[in-house]
Each structure stands twice: as C-alpha cells, then as structure tokens.
Amino acid sequence: MLEIMGVSKIYGKGQATVVALDDVSLTVNRGDSIAIMGPSGSGKSTLLNIIGGLDRLSRGEVHLEGERIDDLDENDLVSLRRGKISYVFQQYHLLPSLNALENVLLPIIFSGGADGRDKAADMLRRVGLEKRFKHKPGELSGGEQQRVAIARALVNGPSIILADEPTGNMDQKTGRQILDLLAEMNREGVTILLVTHDPEVAATTRETVFLRDGKIVERTLSRKHPEDARAIECPGK
Prior knowledge:
237 residues, alpha/beta, 7-stranded mixed beta sheet, 4-stranded antiparallel beta sheet, 7 helices, globular
C-alpha cells in the first residue's frame, strides 16, 4: 500500500547540514498499525510529514497504492490530504470560531462532497460527541477536541491516518479513549502510523519502528500478537 524507498531529508548546507532522515525504507501494508519511536531529533515527525506531503524529501521516493506521491505538485498534494491521507496532531488545529459540526464539515466542503452535514454528524456520533454538535472548541475538553479532530480526519474516508503524538496533551484516561478510537478505526481497515515517545502508546499498535539519527534501527512486532512477537531484521543493521 505505502512504500518508502531510500528516503533522505537534509536541511542546510556545509557545516550547517543536518541529516534528519538517512536512507529510510519502509513498507506499510493496508490495515497496518505502526508506532514510530525514537529520541527527539531522530526524524519521527519528519518521516510523517514527508509521507503526508507536508515536507519535501531530498532523495528517495514515496509510493501510495502504486502511485508516486513525493513529486506531486501542491494542488495534487492537497487533494491527497483531503482524500487518502489524513492527519491527527497533538495540537488539535480546530477553528475556534466554528462549532464541532462545522469543523468536521470543512474537509467535505473543500473536497466538494455532497451530503456534508449528514456525514459530519454521523462521524461525530461515531466518536461519541452527539451532544456536542453546537459546541465551539473553547467549550470542549481536550479529549473532546481531539475526538472532533479525529472525526474531521476520518470524515472523507481516508486510507491512512498519520497521528503525531495524538495523546501528548492528555491525561491517561482521556488518552486511552483516543487510542481505543484509533484502534477501532484500524480494525475497520484504516491504516495507522503513529509517532509517540510513550512505550504504552506504542504497545497499542501492531508494530513499532525505532528511529535513531535518521535511520531505522529496529522493528518489533507487538506482544499483543504473541505468534508474531519477534524482532524484524532491518536492512543494514
């Protein structure tokens, strides 16, 4: 489904050069759930941003469903993010002047979809916010805002959700609710790539990919699947 092939990302020149990603290759199958871990500065968010077209790679290729996407122009990248790929950030990025229903409706409006209000309402019900349609972000708890953000990410039926520290600002109980919701989406076939510093969050996914100094140094399958719980050999390790 998703192939990341020899991807490098280099910032600056000369003595100011910073290698954020160094020849990273990764295959993600449809329906996978993968946590990306590593120390600060290891390239986790950079990798997510390149997959989602928010950042341009320096070398390599990214293919989604057989189509090369790293060289798309900005208009095509916007269309990609409105359809096949959606983001969930640590910061919710909701528009404060719009209520929950209107925030979820935005991707449908931008993509020119029909029956937008019904779809947005159904998705909010799905995430347990049927009583919060008319509430603006400032009237919602952090967990409720993140659920609105997830509903917005899912409303156009993406193939992949890219989640960058989605529970980083939450208490344990609320964070667990968000992770349970993402796990439910994954069981229904949505592919999840999740950046986290927290091993407990990573344990909710099927596989963990470890980055260090811009390289994949280890891949481990979750103990939730004991038949698969073994380290996966990484090329060049």
